[in-house]
């Protein structure tokens, strides 16, 4: 007769349960809405420009407002999440998003659209550190890389859904439905908000803030009788002295290097990626692929491969490790951009193949955008670190998106791709120098504070 099962003494070593899977889908709402909201405005732009008589600068401001909002929201609310908790912010940011989306359907001037897009960006930027920190702090270590990395898939699903909804509205109602397009984000936003109701607070955060009774309650609720609650909480509070983190902590000692790594690799990844994803047809036309619908079909294929490239990376992140995955991904991302820059007059098949390879190889950094900062920083500043790295990345996204059309016009397609290759090469150097191996690392207090090997 089998004896009693060994009780769970650490969240890091707990078995994967249906609760973890539900939590992952709930947390995926932020990336989904980010992809949806950033993409739907491109479809709505034509009708909006006509109805509101937007100037080029006003239209640019509409496009940039959400990115600026994400930058501000990620940094401010990431810090606030470490102070007041994940659970409260987890629902408040979605309420703001739903309300702002509904109001967007009634906007009748450029400044209203710009303001509401900025507010939407604030809510999205807030959700990244909130949801990823909450998910990371509940996940077992052996599943953390794959399940955190899977969140980026929902960004691409959200972007695809936005294009589908937008084009269906144009097909059946014309460009005049642009307000309905902007307001449509409220529908998935409300669904995700309802899904998140009842999500428990992170026991790690509760323990770090001295709320041990509540921490015991949520741990027991999730794991039932199979958990040794006192042992779990002891693992979360060991050596911390109940100290709450400060914003400045992420810029001190080993955390300064880790913050530089997370922010810089993220920035170097998304600067060319966002530009290519956003202006795919324009870029392909600049390479001479302007016969019929070739540029649009090529762009659609490239966009699909950004999503597909994440799938094998999700398997490799836990089997192979974080450090080799990110280094080799950057190596393989530099090569096709360099070929495009050196041989911009290559045949159409070569041009499209290079862009497709870049999209496929970007899967590694894509799935590590939130995995790395969540694993490299302790519970008391985890959301702060995610917020800062996300904010830094949006600087690159905004710059790349703004400058790419001008670069194509002024210096041409080849030199523009060489600039992208150099930026990606900088990301590779950063990864070789500073990427740590966090595979199987504990998120408990002691594991948080110990520097991890970089070889």
Automatic annotation (TrEMBL):
Keyword Transmembrane appears in the UniProt entry: yes
PROSITE patterns: MFS, SUGAR_TRANSPORT_1, SUGAR_TRANSPORT_2
Membrane topology, as annotated: Multi-pass membrane protein
A GO CC term attached to the entry: plasma membrane
Annotated SUPFAM superfamilies: MFS general substrate transporter
Major facilitator superfamily (MFS) profile domain location: 23-439
Primary location recorded for the protein, binned into one broad class: membrane
GO MF annotation, one: carbohydrate:proton symporter activity
Transmembrane segments: 31-48, 54-76, 88-107, 113-136, 148-170, 176-195, 261-284, 296-317, 329-361, 381-404, 416-435
Keyword presence, Transmembrane: yes
Keywords tagged on the record: Membrane, Transmembrane, Transmembrane helix
Annotated localization: Cell membrane
Family annotation (InterPro entries): MFS_dom, MFS_sugar_transport-like, MFS_Sugar_Transporters, MFS_trans_sf, Sugar_transporter_CS
Family named by the database record: Belongs to the major facilitator superfamily. Sugar transporter (TC 2.A.1.1) family.
Protein name: MFS transporter
Biological classification of the source: Bacteria, Bacillati, Actinomycetota, Actinomycetes, Micromonosporales
